[in-house]
Every structure is written in structure tokens, then in C-alpha cells.
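Revision sheet: C-alpha cells.
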Amino acid sequence: MNLNKVFIIGRITSDIVLKATPSNQPVTTMSVATNRVWTDKSGQKQEEAEFHNVVVWGRQAELASQFLSKGSLVLIEGRLRTRSWKDNNNQNRKVTEIVCERMQFGPRPQGSAQRPFVAKAKPTDEHESLEEESLPQISVDESLEDEIKPEDLPF
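Predicted:
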């Protein structure tokens, strides 16, 4: 059995530039930094950063370029791929990158809008506009707590 699966949570290191292939397929590459913190044998706190090259295709690439910027927190799920080519000096080059299969955005940075924006088309306007969508309020009925008994739980 073989498995090629990567999960990283980190921060974008530079603004994202959306490109297109000759067949008009959207693609973007980005660098994501992850940190590792540990305590060494002498009790000193140590930290090291690792930088990952990530390739995002299709609609996800468009969304990444629209909503992510330098410093944004992102979760990437994907697979490792190593490409090789010859450069202008006829030297063999290799790069290992993560091909993104799923992406989840982290929280918005401080100072940005607190509520999510949803694009909605106005019937009288031919352009889409952004309108704030309020979050639903969920209230917990305290009387429901009495309905669940520990002996009813299957574990």
C-alpha cells in the first residue's frame, strides 16, 4: 500500500499571483512557512521555520489569489510531487512541491471585516456587489440537558 498525503498549516510568505496555462487553466504557486518549536537538552526554547512550495490549480487557485495575501493563515492538504528540468545552463534542476488538493483559509487578520462577505447580485444592478451576511444566532435550550442520560450513551 502506498500513500502520498501532506497536511500543513502555515502562513503565506508573499502575495499570490494568479497565472494561466496556455490552455487557460488557472494556476498559482505560493510559499507557505511552518514553524517548529522545541526545547533542547539544555532547556532552551528553539524554533525553526520550514518553507514549502505549494501549487494550486483551477478554481482553488482563483480563490487563493482573491482571499489570501502575505501573512494569511492557511491549511493545505495535498500530495508531494518532484519535478525535474534542465535550466538555461543545461544543468539538471529539481524541485519538490505540494500539489494542493484541498485548502482551508484561516481567520481574517485583525482590522479586517469581522463578518463574512457573500457576493449577491442586485436585480437592478448588472454588477455583483458584496453585502454582509449576518451569522445566525443559536440558542441552547437548557431543558434539553435533562433529556440525555449517561446510561443512554453507547460508550
